[in-house]
């Protein structure tokens, strides 16, 4: 799987509900002992770390590659603004698929998943849909749908709740405001549900 999270980049937008996808994928990668996120595939990438260290009296610490990881996924985080994130997702998927085919077989079919915030769902609720389902006004998903064309992909939404008002300015302030501690905890509690969804898609 290539698991792409979309959100807004940089410190201004860090820790906001609109970047729930980034928060959840960072949390999962950390809990699964993946490598730290570093630049790659036109965004930030984290892969399984199957390196093990052993200590012997003669050689000191030696580093070896362990067996295949439990979940061989590549996490990718968008570095572009949410509304145009489809461009980066398409570039990342194209490069990742080419890499996968070089490593395995020329006909290998990797699967693409986009993890995103879901305004219409309760905080922490996980939903899974196929790519063609309505984007429900989510501009990041609309951008992905426009860019990915004939590619089959999956969406994993992480609920962020919604304000009572439907006024666009109120909604914008809600999704782009800094999260409170209990909101962040609610998103982190969604992680096992997201992992279950990813395993089902895999």
TrEMBL record:
UniProtKB keywords: Hydrolase
Keyword Hydrolase on entry: yes
Top-level taxon in the UniProt lineage: Eukaryota
Statement: the UniProt record of this protein carries the keyword Hydrolase: yes
UniProt-recorded name of the protein: Peptidyl-tRNA hydrolase
Organism taxonomic ancestry: Eukaryota, Fungi, Dikarya, Ascomycota, Pezizomycotina
